[in-house]
């Protein structure tokens, strides 16, 4: 198997596997169930499938960036956004720091937008792979801020 495909598998394991591991270790639980939810709160069953698809797309975008320039600034931005992504669940669901989680997700939005803007003219496919993620975390930030506002402000 060519090395570039081994690195694709590594990116898929990192993103999909890492996301699944973090998701299973930081479950919403009773605390989340007891929160007042905004009217647009999606059903719980939706999050797993959406994140699985998004993590696969994020992995491919990261891999495409990696094979182009593994040590470049774009790769650093990609790693920073995935690190923030993996930080959000424990901050929100385990520690219940909803306002800090909102700041994390807003930083994710900024980094993802920078990534898309920077890659757009170099690799449009990679840019398109990240757009659904940007839309979802935009929605998730609205949800996060609404949950904070309705319950803790």
From TrEMBL:
Top-level taxonomy: Bacteria, Pseudomonadati, Pseudomonadota, Alphaproteobacteria, Hyphomicrobiales
Keyword Transcription: no
Similarity section: Belongs to the TspO/BZRP family.
Signal peptide per UniProt: none
Superkingdom of the source species: Bacteria
Name of the protein described by the UniProt record: TspO/MBR family protein
Topology in membrane: Multi-pass membrane protein
PANTHER family hit by this protein: PERIPHERAL-TYPE BENZODIAZEPINE RECEPTOR, TRANSLOCATOR PROTEIN
Keyword Transmembrane helix: yes
One Pfam family recorded for the sequence: TspO_MBR
Ranges that cross the membrane: 44-63, 75-93, 99-120, 127-150
Subcellular location: Membrane
Keywords for this protein: Membrane, Transmembrane, Transmembrane helix
